């Protein structure tokens, strides 16, 4: 019988350019099982994932392959999967409310979860919730989708797009990206939520108005789920007219901001107390701690998570000072 360390060495010899994940024993196959992540081009931070599992036989060390779907029966695959990216919690909360009403107990995963690709590969129906930026898809979400192109094939996807006011085709923008990889977009739902751009005065509302906004979103979700259960999916943001509204409303002028990571955020060293909360929560690892202070690089995805959670309001991104921090927990 070989050890897990020996099994890993065997697989690393066969796939020297890959990063191995997991290493668990699957008793029914008498093997250690691994998933593999490969580099995408020359970018050291870009990764390509797939739904293939690599099995190393415990007795012989022989390598075999298996699609992750083979580990699950049809009943598991028919359960919908909720996935999300969220900066301040709006998209996460909207998805949690949706899934509880749609299929209580169904899994909900962040795209920041390293094992989420396996979950996507298994489930046939996906509910994808994300925050719209400039009527477009955030860079981190775009990269996530492109990192695992084969996993979206034949998936039935409903897109939940959260926004401060208007996106035109928020659901459609993500939907088109998924369709390129073989997904079928069956529904689109737009939800107005508390504005997350904490360092700009535009779209700021009172606490009471934000509470009402969240309640209205909950009610809208309930109506949408009732319709879906009757076979009628919402179609917000899908089609040519919403696409034109999104393009001419914002994407034509500001869409370039979502096509690459940006410099920032700006961190005031005189205000920063070095708590490290921003560095711990940054989804791209853009913020690091050095000499007891937070420092930013140039891999910002504009999610505004750090600006909204900083206890000293030491961080800004587009504006010069924090006007209103709006994490979703404030309004529940």
What does this entry look like structurally?
This protein is of the alpha/beta class and 332 residues long. The chain has three domains: 4-71, no CATH class; 74-258, Flavodoxin domain (Rossmann fold), CATH 3.40.50.360; 266-327, Alpha-Beta Plaits (2-Layer Sandwich). Helices cover 31% and strands 25% of the residues. The protein has helices spanning 4-14, 74-77, 90-102, 116-122, 139-147, 170-179, 207-229, 240-254, 277-281, 305-309; strands at residues 18-26, 31-40, 43-57, 63-67, 81-84, 108-110, 125-131, 156-163, 184-192, 266-267, 287-290, 293-296, 315-316. Strands 6-5-7-8-9 form a five-stranded parallel beta sheet, with helices on both faces. The protein has a four-stranded antiparallel beta sheet with strand order 1-2-3-4. The chain has a two-stranded antiparallel ribbon with strand order 10-13. It is globular. The relative contact order is 0.12. The mean pLDDT is 90.
């Amino acid at each position: 019988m070989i050890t897990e360390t020996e099994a890993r060495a065997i697989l690393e010899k066969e796939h020297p350019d890959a990063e191995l994940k997991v290493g668990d024993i699957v008793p029914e196959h008498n093997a250690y099982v691994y998933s593999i992540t490969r580099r995408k081009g020359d970018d050291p931070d870009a990764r390509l994932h797939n739904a293939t599992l690599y099995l190393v036989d415990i007795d012989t060390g022989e390598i075999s392959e298996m699609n992750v779907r083979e580990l699950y029966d049809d009943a598991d695959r028919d359960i919908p999967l909720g996935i999300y990216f969220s900066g301040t919690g709006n998209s996460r909360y909207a998805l949690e409310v949706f899934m509880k009403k749609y299929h209580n107990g169904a899994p909900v995963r962040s795209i920041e979860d390293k094992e989420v690709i396996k979950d996507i590969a298994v489930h046939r129906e996906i509910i994808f919730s994300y925050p719209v930026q400039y009527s477009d898809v955030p860079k981190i979400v775009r990269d996530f989708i492109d990192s695992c192109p084969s996993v979206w094939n034949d998936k039935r996807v409903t897109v939940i797009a959260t926004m401060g006011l208007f996106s035109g085709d928020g659901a459609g923008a993500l939907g088109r990206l998924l369709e390129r990889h073989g997904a079928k977009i069956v529904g689109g739902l737009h939800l107005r939520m508390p504005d997350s751009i904490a360092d700009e005065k535009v779209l700021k509302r009172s606490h009471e108005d934000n509470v009402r906004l969240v309640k209205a979103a909950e009610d809208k979700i309930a109506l949408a789920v009732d319709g879906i259960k009757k076979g009628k999916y919402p179609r917000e943001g899908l089609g040519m007219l919403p696409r034109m509204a999104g393009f001419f409303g914002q994407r034509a002028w500001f869409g370039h901001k979502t096509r690459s990571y940006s410099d920032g955020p700006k961190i005031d060293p005189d205000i920063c107390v070095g708590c490290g909360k921003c560095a711990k929560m940054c989804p791209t690892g853009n913020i690091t701690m050095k000499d007891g202070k937070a420092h930013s690089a140039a891999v910002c995805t504009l999610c505004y998570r750090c600006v909204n959670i900083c206890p000293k309001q030491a961080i800004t991104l587009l504006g010069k000072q924090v006007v209103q921090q709006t994490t979703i927990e404030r309004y529940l």
